[in-house]
Every structure is written in C-alpha cells, then in structure tokens.
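Hi P.,

Sorry for the delay on this. The queue was packed all week, but I finally got your sequence through. Input first:
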Amino acid sequence: MYGTSAVVVGAGIVGCACARELALAGFEVTVVERGAAASATTAHGEGNVLVSDKGPGPELELAQLSRRLWPQVLAAAAERSAHAARAVEWEPKGGIVVATTDAGARELTRFAADQRTAGVHTETLDADALAAAEPYVTRDHAAAVHYPEDAQVQPAAAAAALLTDALAAGATLRTGCEVLGALTRGGRITAVRTSTGLLEADFFVNAAGPWGGELATRLGAPVDIRPRRGDVLVTTPVPPMVFHKVYDADYVGAVGSSAEDLQTSAVVESTRGGSVLVGSSRRRVGFDDRLRPAVLSAVAAKALRLFPALAGVPVMRAYGGFRPYVPDHLPVIGADPRLSGLWHVGGHEGAGIGLSVGSARLLRRLMLGQPTEMDTTPFRVDRPAVLGGRPAPASEETA
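Then the structure:
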C-alpha cells in the first residue's frame, strides 16, 4: 500500500498499535492526538493482557490472538529500540481467580470448564496450592483457578513502544491537534478539519477510545461508544506480597454488566516498582472525572476481603479513567458502511491494552483485503448495538 495515506485519530494504545501495523504495511500514516500520546485512558489502566475474564466467543478469540502476538510484537520492537521494549515491563505472571462463596465457586468452575473447551489453559488450585502461589491471599475461599496465560504490561510504556515502532516505519505524530469535522465527496471522507488545519488522506481510523462516539458523530457517522468510569488505588511500595494478577470471581460479572450503577470487584496485582494496584469499579457517569470516596472505599473493602494483609498498607494515591463501552460488550473493528474511507477500532472497554495488537492486526488485514486470523463479523460496525438504527447526519461536501 505504498503511496496510500491513512490518518489514525487517537494516540492511545489502540491507535498506536493501528499506526504501527499500517506503517509496517507501507501506508503513509499520520497519528492525530488532541492531547499527548498515551496520556488519557491508556495512562489510567492497569496493563492487563487477559484471557481469564472472557468466556468462549469472539472476544476470547481476539484475546487469544493478541496474547500470541504480544511477545512477537515486543521482540520486533526490541530490534529497533531495546530501551522502549524493556520499558514495557512485559510480565507473563499469570492470573488467579478466587471464589469466596459456594455460589461463586460453582459459577467459576462452570466458567473455567467452558473456557477449556475454547483452548484456554486453566489449573484448579486446592487450598495448599493457592497458599503456595499466593501466601497472603484469604484462606476463606471456596474455589480458585490459575490462568498461566494472563500477563501484564506497563500501559503507557507499551503504547510508547508501539508508537516508536510506527515512527521508525515512517509514521508521523501530531499532538495538540483536535479533529473537528469531516469533508466528504460522493459519500467518501476525503479530509478532516482539525484545530491546526485541514488534513487529507485516503483512509481515516477512529481509534479515539471513550471519545470514539463523539468523534464519530463529528465525522458524520455516529457509533454507540460511551465512557464507563473506573477507579484504581495505588499503595506505597511494599515487599513482595502479590505474585499474580488476583481477582475475585465477581469481576467477570462486573465486566459483563450493562448496569449504570456502581459495580465493584476485587482486583489486586503488584508492579515492578513494589506498589500494589487495587481495583476495580465500573460506573456510567459520562465524562465526570471526579474521584468519589464512597467508590474508593467500596473497592478497598472488597480487596481487603481478598487480601487481608493489605489492611496495614498505606494508599499513596488514587486515579480514575474512562473505558470505551459498547452496549453488547464487543469491540468495533471494521469499515463504516455509511461513509467510505472511515474505519473504526474501539469499544474494547477495560480490555484495550490486551486486545490492542490483535485488533490492529485485524484492521491491517481488512484494509488490505487479506484473510484475517479469525472471523471479524461479530465486530462489524453495522450491528444494532453500534449503530442503533440511527442515520448519519449531514457532513460537509466538497466539490
């Protein structure tokens, strides 16, 4: 595709992954970001690369594809910038899901059995095995499952490594550049109006994360991607006391819930710097970015039931961010059927870090008309949950 130009709107980890794939395929790529690269949703994530929280279906297939790609992508990145690749802090430490009630244990056992049929590696842990794997986790539990394929990255550094690769392949980055609208000709998008001027290209990729719905509306092709807020507590550095990503069995239900009210579950993991990250919460509050003490208290309470030893560990800060939420809980990956030349890659909710490289690979193959590693039909833009039957508003036509 040499000589073909593409504008990727959004320099979070999904946009950076898309820019990398397209630049390596020979596209002339421009990445447009209204703020700084990886400074919004990506910077406020935990860096999860998970298969453990996804049941059989298209999202799990995408997670499995991404999990296979991450080591390959990082190995290739290391050849061009060893420092950038090291900063990613790739850690395939595995995950452990703990059920603290009999009902939760039954559901976790069923869920893990279904995952095994889809090729997920799971290991049931008895009390002794769980104590050996996580000495500080609660002994008051009914079941536990180990997922050795789960991994973690430092999210902002991972995005930076992907962007570094894209820039090395010829991409350019424009920060402080907000997209305001689209110019079209004959039903095709030909340019975007930005805060710094007009930007023309052959293709445009909406990778704006939680702002993807707002951006799509500005471009004249609205999609139903909304923000869903989450909050995380960060402890002061402590001696090693959490050795996997550990979460309670309620987490899967919170991820799959469409409720607008507060959903919380215990998610606990350490960082290489010694801090412990404690989550998680889900709230649909628009772009209200205020931290709520009641939410943080609820998150902490659930974490303490999972890890009682955290009771004496100080919290040094808390932060929140917005996940890109789609009502049917599936990403949006593909061409917009209403506006030729516009593509969408978004709606990953809390899984964007892990799913970024797989989603970008699918985008690259779709744009080149090549076979994809999996069926992308479930991610299509023209499904009811994404379009909701709404026609595109009029956009600016150019002669």
